[in-house]
Predict the 3D structure of the following.
Amino acid sequence: MKTLLDAGFEGSLLNLQTRYLRKLFTVYHPDLNLPDYAIAYQSGSIYMLLVCPFYTKKANSNRN
């Protein structure tokens, strides 16, 4: 159950981040005219770099 709750929370964070990036690109860089999939890809990449190392570290510490 905890895994499902974590996935729901992470999905919400990722959605919020993607919306923020879409707004950021349209307001500050309208000349880029990025398609939705490019913004989603960038959002996922940022999320993986910032959030996932903490989960990996936590998971590895529980294995001892």
